[in-house]
Structures are given as C-alpha cells and as structure tokens.
Amino acid sequence: MSVAGELGRLRKAVGQTQAQLATAAGVSRMSVQRIEAGQIDPRLSTVLE
Q1: Most CB contacts within 10 A, which of 11, 12, 13, 32?
Q2: Which tens digits make up the pLDDT trace of 22-43?
C-alpha cells in the first residue's frame, strides 16, 4: 500500500480529520489532503510525527 493510502486509512481508523492530523504534524490541511491524494510525497520526518 502507498504512503498516501496508508495515511488516509490510519487517520480514519483513529477518528481524526485531516485538519486534526495537520495540526498534530505541523503541516497544513492542504498538505495532508495532497499527501492522501498521492499528489506529493511527504518527508519521512513528517510521516514519523
């Protein structure tokens, strides 16, 4: 599974919105949306947060 698909699946599994995940990771909601859509690849440090 891709990072994009896994991120979206895990986010939904813990009941977080894209905005909540973005705040926790220190990125914009638009970045989370683009990562989940497979439009951009996140840095490893962002994924690990």
Answers
A1: 32
A2: 999 899 999 999 999 989 887 6
Q: Where is 45: in which H helix or E strand?
A: helix 44-48
What's the pTM? 0.78
Number of domains in the chain: 1
| CATH code, domain carrying 29 | 1.10.260.40
* Token pair recorded at residue 48: 């690990």
| Cα dihedral sign, 21-22-25-31 | positive
Q: How many CA atoms lie within 13 A of 16 on its CB side?
A: 17
